[in-house]
Amino acid sequence: MKINVRNLFWNLLKYIGSAVVIMWLVFWYLSGSFWGLPRFGVTYYVATQKFMTPISKDVLFDGILKGMIASLGEPHSVYLDQKDLNTMKEHTSGTYAGVGMVLGYGERGLEAVSVIEDQPAFKAGIKSGDYIVSINGEDTNGMKIEDAAANIRGEAGTVVTIVVQRDSVVHTFTVTREEITLPTVKSHMLTKTVGYLRISQFAEHTAEDFNTQYNQLRSEGMTSFVLDLRDNPGGLLNSAEEVANVIMPEGTLVSMTPRGSKTTTYTSNGENTPIPMVVLINKGSASASEIIAGAIQDRKLGTIVGVNSYGKGTVQTIYPNLDGEGIKVTIAKYHTPNDRVIDGIGIKPDVEIDLPKGVSPSGTISDIQIQKALELLQE
Question: Which of 209, 228, 298, 367 is catalytic?
């Protein structure tokens, strides 16, 4: 059998040409630019062949994926590798090794949104609202929240040096990391009839613990209560919804409209007859805690006391990817029952009262915000 080399060559050339055209069109579509393929090729060549030290292909590819999500320009959307995803699961479970601090972005940069009481950062003296200047000597300017959190976390017993700015004064803290198991709900009776329930974050078991302690206080004579959401950075929406079931009658909790989807409305189902309540919030109250406070305020179920909350009014979900990785992406802004969008705005209290400078929330009747709550409940 005689092979026609000429025809074979031209057929091969046509296949290669077709493949190049298809690739060109794919990159044109993905990049939105006619020059997408050559731009990618030149960049890849420079990164792999001209950078001063060799770099592995998997590192470059991971960088492409992370850069794609980072280019969305939204601080809560991030590509999660296996380590990041496992860390996030640990945090929402309420058990992890770190210092007990939740990070976010404020007007001046990276800040401590919430410093969780009785945890290492709190005991060291870091306060909610402190701007994080550096972590172990590394400047945080432009640092992603997840990268900063990863730098702060580490093995229990090791230390991390955190430099913060507070009221134009720079403070340096050396904090010893601990294995943190967060009791997310605390409670006690303030008076014979007024209970106190504190939620530090909305984790996996928060609603179950809250329901147990709420019923315990009711059995002790609680006829009204103070719900303390100060320095609560939020957490799981379904956990907040289950807490709402305990304290709110049937009605809207929050709604959101993801891109290309119908509006999703979360509701409270009114498991118990509601009793009078005052909700305490501050600058460290964010996300799910703002959902609870906003619903109570809009539905006039209680009085909101404190100072303006953080203003994280967006909803994130995690989409799993292959190889144990995931993508955390912001899918919508949430709306309170009165259709308020509070992202970047926060919840404005019905009664504004701040703690004295340098004083942290205590959960006792010496706390002036709790004193105001007791006055309102007595009225």
Answer: 298
Per CATH, the homologous superfamily of domain 183-378 is 2-enoyl-CoA Hydratase; Chain A, domain 1 (3.90.226.10)
0.85 exceeded by pTM: no
Q: Would you list the DSSP string of 317-345?
A: EEEE-STT-EEEEEEEEEE-TT--B-TTT
Other CB atoms closer than 10 Å to residue 103's CB: what's the count? 21
Residue 139's H or E segment, with its range, is strand 138-139
Q: How far apart are CA 164 and CA 130, in angstroms?
A: 6
* Per annotation, catalytic residue among 66, 283, 312, 328: 312
255 counts as catalytic: no
Q: Which of 215-229, 261-275, 330-344 bottoms out in mean pLDDT, i.e. has the lowest?
A: 261-275
CB 77 within 8 A of CB 329: yes
- The C-alpha atoms of residue 139 and residue 72 are separated, in whole angstroms, by 23
Q: Which of 49-53, 61-65, 260-264, 335-339 has the highest mean pLDDT?
A: 335-339
Tokens of 206: 């928060």
- Asked about 118 being catalytic, the answer comes back as no
Assign residue 191 a region: left if phi > 0, alpha if psi is -120 to 50, beta otherwise? beta
SS (H, E, C) 21-74: HHHHHHHHHHHCCCCHHHHHHHHHHHHHHHCCCCCCHHHHHHHHHHHHHHCCCC
Question: Do residues 113 and 346 make contact, with C-beta atoms less than 8 angstroms apart?
Answer: no
323 is annotated as an active-site residue: no
pLDDT tens digit string along 173-191? 999 999 877 678 999 999 9
Cα separation, 349 vs 296, whole angstroms? 11
DSSP-derived letter for residue 94 is: T
The catalytically annotated residue of 287, 289, 309, 328 is 287
**351-352, strands of its sheet edge to edge:** 185-189, 194-199, 224-228, 277-281, 303-306, 351-352
Residue given tokens 């009791």 in the structure block: 183
- Domain made up of 95-180: CATH architecture: Roll (2.30)
* Residue (of 303, 330, 336, 305) closest to 318 by Cα position: 330
CA distances from 217 to 29, 188, 195, 289 (A): 60, 7, 6, 21
- Those residues whose C-beta lies under 8 Å from the C-beta of residue 203, and which sit 6 or more positions away, are 92, 93, 94, 182, 184, 235, 236, 239
